[in-house]
């Protein structure tokens, strides 16, 4: 962005590597899961987040994220701050109700990821603030997630649709469901599909219910856009497919 003059040339650049060790961790605590602001995607892949079905969406994101070399360098926090229309960890962490702990010399504050995202490439982060960690509640036993990036290329950023789903069941009843898609909020940033979530909550899981949620409810709350990648109509059609596949995949993961 500096090279392309999309942001003014900064007077100073601060290298976070000096504090990388302190910022690199993934921990399970009483108040939930904590991911350090310096944790790279590769480091994340070596933790319980990539072994426990409740976090299966993390594996989905990782497998399709950029290039292998990039996964050694890129951090989850860096991905959130980049805040493009389709940053993968934003779409995923929205369905885990993630919050960020921001720290500065003046103290710290907690911000919900949803509120952190203001606009494309614009986040609620002061110049002297750092993402110390990302926090989200530990999901219940009978839950799982799924993430799908649908594009002709799939690797390297996104094109047509990315979507994530978190699902929790009690027997076959949907006790919790969270759904997110890339660039659906009015500023074309990733957002939740809350009407569809409400429709699904409390219902018995069945293919008919998925069909209804995708075909009848989702289009009433979600506007899709035409850009040089594809048309709004095609994007909407594929969003329905992604929703159904994500829900089915999360269901199958819960059921083993
Ligand atoms: C070839 C290529 C392919 C890509 N493919 C994908 C893809 O498939 N999916 C996808 O989502 N994205 C993709 N990206 C973009 C990707 O989001 C970023 O490259 C990466 O996630 C940024 O992480 P980073 O740690 O390198 O952050 P940096 O690029 O170093 O920083 C990004 C921004 O975050 C700030 N920042 C970083 N860490 C912190 C912190 N702890 N606290 C506060 N601010 C911080 C920096 O100051 C900067 O403003 C791709 C990029 C490239 C170049």
From TrEMBL:
Residues 1-141 form the FAD-binding PCMH-type domain. Transmembrane segments: none annotated. It holds the Pfam family FAD_binding_5. Signal peptide: none annotated. The keyword Flavoprotein applies. Keywords: FAD, Flavoprotein, Oxidoreductase. GO terms for molecular function: FAD binding; oxidoreductase activity. The keyword Repeat does not apply. This is Molybdopterin dehydrogenase, FAD-binding.
């Amino acid at each position: 962005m500096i090279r392309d003059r999309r942001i003014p040339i900064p007077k100073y650049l601060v290298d976070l590597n000096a504090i990388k060790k302190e910022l690199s961790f993934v921990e399970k605590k009483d108040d939930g899961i904590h991911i350090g602001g310096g944790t790279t995607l590769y480091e994340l892949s070596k933790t319980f987040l990539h072994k426990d079905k409740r976090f299966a969406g993390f594996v989905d994101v990782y497998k399709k994220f950029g290039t292998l070399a990039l996964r050694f360098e890129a951090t989850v926090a860096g991905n959130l701050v980049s805040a493009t229309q389709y940053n993968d960890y934003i779409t995923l962490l929205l369905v885990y109700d993630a919050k960020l702990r921001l720290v500065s010399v003046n103290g710290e504050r907690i911000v919900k990821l949803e509120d952190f995202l203001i606009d494309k490439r614009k986040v609620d982060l002061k110049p002297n603030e750092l993402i110390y960690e990302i926090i989200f509640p530990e999901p219940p036993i009978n839950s799982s997630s799924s993430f799908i990036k649908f594009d002709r290329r799939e690797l390297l950023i996104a094109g047509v649709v990315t979507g994530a789903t978190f699902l929790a069941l009690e027997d076959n009843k949907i006790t919790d469901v969270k759904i997110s898609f890339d660039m659906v909020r009015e500023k074309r940033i990733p957002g939740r599909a809350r009407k569809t979530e409400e429709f699904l909550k409390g219902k018995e899981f069945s293919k008919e219910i998925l069909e209804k949620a995708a075909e009848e409810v989702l289009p009433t709350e979600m506007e899709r856009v035409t850009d040089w990648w594809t048309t709004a109509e095609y994007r909407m059609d594929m969003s329905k497919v992604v929703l159904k596949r994500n829900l089915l995949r999360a269901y199958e993961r819960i059921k083993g």
